[in-house]
Amino acid sequence: MAIRPPRPEPPGSRHAATRTMLRSLLCTAQAALSALALTACTTIPTAFAPSAAVSRSAAATVTALHRLVADGAPGAAALATHDGRIAASRFATAGVADLRSGRRMGRLDHFRAGSLTKTLVATVVLQLVAERKLALDDPAGARLPAGVPVTGAGGRSDLRRVTIRQLLDHTSGLFNYTEDPRLSEQLHGTGFRAHRYDRYAPAALLRIALGHPPVAAPGARYSYSNTNYLVLGLVIRAVTGHPYAAELGRRVLRPTDLYDTSFPGDDPALPAPHGRSYSRIGEHRVDSTSLDPSRAGAAGEMVTTLGDLNRFFAALLGGRLLPPRQMAELRSERATDGVYGLGLYATRLPCGVTVWGHNGDINGSYAQSAGTADGRHVVSYRINTDTPARPADGTAVLTAEFCAPRT
Q1: pTM
Q2: Does 320 score more than 90 pLDDT?
């Protein structure tokens, strides 16, 4: 069952909807009249005029999006928000959302966000820590619902020796369940077509992970593992008495007005509007738009929009979701030698600027969000294929936004 926050209907909402529709029509008209091979449509209130620096940043972002498409992505899109003004966000796109129709990506398009789910999960876990319902040094095994496995064969993988902090910063040493050879073939390989609608229970996926020896001792080193956040989703359920998705809806989606974000459970369909998603399996490009997202669960099932990602990261980095102590924990990378915080990455760009965010991929979709430390400048971008062919292409989008010349 999909978890989605209800939309409020304040007075004047029909007028707001009309304004939104008119802005959308204006964007469409601008795109149709453009002689360029891209769409760059911006919603700008009359009181806001972009500076020359912002214009240079916009041009650099468009170039970076074209590079993503030139290197194999069918389409790419980015949304940049300056000074916390979501209404003044700048949207740009290159390529197409649908290879058959030629439709371009839209600002309101829904897509699968993969591991960007993890930052929302981490936020709720840290809220529970702030409320003293959970402690970062608690053994994970003691915080799981009844009936969930805590050890593997021979006790080699043991959640009783892993702490909540080690799950959050990927120092647990737990085997990444998506790398199990048989399961990986079903999720991403030649078995995808036959297994794309298979439903997976979190406990069953955890059992697969625990069946493998750990990759390192708990706390020894950083090793990214989807298993960690699969477990955290179960911890949230045990501590709150609610499914993790319902708790994220109550604590994150509703307070930050993320009305286009959902946790679909086992629903294979994307909400409208949406484009298509494409995966490479061997030498073939496969339409992977429809699939059962329970394969990802709390590690990556979220469906969202670029606008909602910007709203979330602006709120999180701006200190509106966590107290100062937990914000410091969120950013702390001391246990990972500067690689990862507690559900958040710091990306150090070539110009010396450091931005905070996360990335995520799942079949046919890759996205990344990053923002300044205060959340006043945020950019989210996406492509409709599994991952960028060259990681530098994604970094180029961030560099364009945060390192553009200011004079």
Answers
A1: 0.88
A2: yes
